[in-house]
Specification:
9-stranded mixed sheet, 387 residues, 12 helices, single chain, globular
Length: 387
């Protein structure tokens, strides 16, 4: 199978759940014997325009304009017009212009098209404004696809609610449970004598990092030596550092900056619990799944499209409910046996329902079916599937 993958961002050029998903899917499909080419937008002028790595070919295109944080690369559009030799186009996230272009050109070229929904809303645009996009260009983009991949049944329902009529396959976004494990080396970055709490998030509004600082401030009423470690960087860092200094929390909050992905398993193992206050997530928050795979309990915001999948393995509160999150985290830090039980339960759930191998196999099987029949599923009635 010859796969043309289209993604605005790819790891390691850009860190994060979506870029890593694109990279790992391409790497593993190439290892299965498929020919994979990835088209992306160049984020930095230093990497080469074209390279082969981890078994797949990566082609970067320079952006010529930027609209609300969304880079436009005319060269990518021109390349999409030359799709001879490919069996299927697989685009990632309706949020980006690259996927809008892929939808338009795949229809023009009459190529089977799959789109993975990595999350309904953009973190760069207000929800009110983006809702207009979803009901217009966003919905149109989805409806050009022969199949839309969603991570959860909740994600499928949200996608259908905006009027998407394209067939939907639910394929869980898995984690490499052989990489993220409870046993192994622990990072030295999380020091201190008291309980350690880890937050892995971009320092931007949609991730609500200030809530994590509020939570640890309140947790210290009961656990005065507790420390919060923020792994990630972003435009809010200087403001957050000023907040920490103003509130006298310098000994409680440590900014780790961007942490290499290879170091993340050891970072999770070194903490007692995870706090994840984000209001803007994709179909399955990778941070939560990685923490579960590493056997660590979490306190997170209640995301309707994902929370039912993990209700028995963590504590969840509405977005912005700092008091509730602090209460839950305080209880976890006070009860090591409960932390251990929740961690073990989360690990078992990842092994049974969120395996990365199953994600790759389920996605590849659907793409192969698209290639085998030009009429499937465009003219064949097929209910949404679950893998």
């Amino acid at each position: 199978m010859h796969v043309l993958r289209v993604a605005q961002k790819v790891y390691p050029d850009v860190e994060g759940g979506l870029p890593y998903h694109v990279h790992a899917m391409s790497r593993d499909q190439a290892a299965m014997g498929h020919d994979v080419t990835v088209l992306t937008v160049r984020q930095d002028p230093s990497p080469p325009k074209t390279e082969t790595r981890d078994g797949y070919r990566l082609v970067r295109f320079d952006p010529r304009a930027n609209l609300i944080g969304n880079q436009i690369a005319p060269g990518l559009a021109r390349r999409l017009l030359k799709t001879d030799g490919f069996d299927v186009v697989h685009a990632h996230s309706h949020i980006y212009f690259a996927t809008n272009l892929a939808a338009a050109i795949a229809r023009y070229r009459d190529l089977p098209l799959a789109i993975t929904n990595h999350g309904m809303y953009s973190q760069s645009v207000s929800k009110r404004v983006f809702s207009v996009y979803l009901k217009t260009l966003g919905r149109w983009t989805f409806n050009q696809a022969d199949v839309v991949f969603c991570y959860t049944e909740g994600g499928r329902e949200r996608t259908e609610r905006i009027g998407v009529t394209a067939p939907i396959d639910v394929v869980a976004n898995g984690i490499d449970e052989t990489r993220f494990t409870p046993d192994g080396r622990e990072s030295d970055a999380l020091g201190g004598e008291g309980p350690t709490v880890l937050a892995v998030l971009r320092l931007k509004d949609g991730k609500r990092p200030a809530d994590a600082i509020e939570v640890i401030d309140r947790v210290r009423d009961r656990h005065p030596t507790a420390g919060l470690y923020l792994a990630g960087d972003g435009p809010l860092r200087e403001r957050l550092e000023r907040t920490v200094a103003r509130r006298g929390l310098e000994d409680a909050v440590t900014f780790l900056g961007s942490v290499p992905y290879d170091e993340m398993p050891a970072l999770y193992r070194a903490c007692d619990a995870i706090v994840h206050p984000s209001e803007a997530e994709g179909g399955s928050p990778r941070v939560i799944l990685e923490a579960m795979a590493a056997g660590r309990p979490f306190v997170a915001t209640d995301l309707e499209h994902f929370s039912p999948s993990i209700a028995d393995v963590g504590r969840m509160r509405p977005v912005g409910h700092v008091d509730g999150m602090a209460e839950d985290l305080t209880e976890l830090l006070s009860d090591p046996n409960r932390r251990r039980r929740l961690g073990e339960r989360g690990r078992r759930l990842v092994e049974s329902a969120f395996s990365w191998r199953s994600t790759v196999e389920g996605t590849t099987e659907t793409l192969e079916r698209l290639c085998e029949s030009a009429d499937w599923p465009r003219t064949a009635a097929r209910p949404p599937g679950q893998r």
